[in-house]
Amino acid sequence: MPALALPPTTAYPSDPKALERDRLDALYLELRGNYKSLMISRGIHRGRAERQGEQLRELSLRLRALATREASVKAEAYAMLEIVTDVVEHLEDAGDEVSVAFGEYQLGRRAYSGGGGIARLVQAVIRFLNRWRLGKERFEELSARQQALRGALETNAEPVDGQDR
Q: Domain of life here (predicted)?
């Protein structure tokens, strides 16, 4: 609804003493009508401003919830990445240990002193298998956390402006 154009203040005399009663009454009624129109416009503007304020507060809450959720997802992703990194590092260390022990065994076998080398190789393989089992357990934990995170994301997904994420 377009705003009504109100007359400028120059349309009204600055000194009403010089006016006749009929003209004074007409100007008063016109001023009263303009004031009424102004108050209606002010009410409409105030209502719109309040609705926009509510919409801004709602948007702010939604953005904060989204930011909190995103931060939570990032924290969980970093925790899961830490598990993967830790497991890979342990397996890499164990693999290096097996490789070194096997190399020592190969050198000792050529010199006919492979008994100590084979014992170190067996110990390295045992440590590798223990780390492998631990790694598998941690990967199972990781898989469970991933499924929980995926489920949480799917249940928390809200449509934004009628659209799915």
A: Bacteria
Contacts of 162 (CB under 8 A, 6+ apart): none
Number of domains in the chain: 1
Of 100, 103, 95, the C-alpha closest to 132 is: 95
- What's the CA angle centered on 112, arms 109 and 114, to 5 degrees? 50
pLDDT digit string (tens) for 117-128?
Answer: 778 888 888 888
Stated pTM of the model: 0.51
Range of the structural domain that residue 123 is part of: 21-156
Sign, Cα dihedral of 114, 117, 123, 125: negative
List % helix, strand, coil for the chain (3-state, nearest 5).
Answer: 85, 0, 15
Q: Is residue 12 part of a domain?
A: no
CA–CA distance, 112 with 132 (Å, rounded to integer) = 31
Is residue 3 in a domain? no
- Residue 161 maps to a domain: no
Whether residue 85 contacts residue 115, with contact meaning beta carbons closer than 8 Å, is answered with no
